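Q: Could you fold this chain for me?
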Amino acid sequence: MNFHKNDLPSNVVFKNSVAVDTETMGLVTKRDRLCLVQLCSEDGEVHIVQIQKDCENKAENLKRLLTDESVLKIFHYARFDISILNYTFGIKTNPIYCTKIASKLARTYSDKHGLKNICKELLDVDLSKQEQSSDWGRENLSPEQLKYAAGDVLYLHRLKSRLDEMLAREGRMSLAERCFETVKLFSDLDLADVKSDELFLH
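A: Sure. Below is the predicted structure, expressed as structure tokens.
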């Protein structure tokens, strides 16, 4: 695990894809600040970037990665993560893949699509969620917090592979890809304070 303050080092390169997650002070994008951005390469190398208060404008390498069209960003529940990243850094994160959406389309036999649930079923990995609601804004994060944060990205590449197999088997890969594109629209609506669930009603 590699820990950095406010930006990725310029020599850290992700070739084709990167797993991404965030930790924030809460779940209200315009109220609760971004504290951590976790990144994991396909070979399992984890980088954790701590974004200190009022240092968002320093993350030039991180912003470059998030907007690099040649690198796929893999999230679990991308809608929230890209909203907080785009709002904090003033960017458009792209392209994206969401394992939660993929799970809902591929695993229609289940109503459990949390990261812990699908890691257990598809990878036989038990994720601890004990630090999920801890104080991510503190300057010195505990070893337990860092381990938790790393775990949220460590398995996303493997999950994507398993879910892609299931989506292809069920003939839903194209539908999933269209959904991933739509996530960006819903994120923009969230940031515009438009209630998307009401927008398409009669």
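A (continued): The domain at 2-195 is CATH 3.30.420.10 (Nucleotidyltransferase; domain 5).
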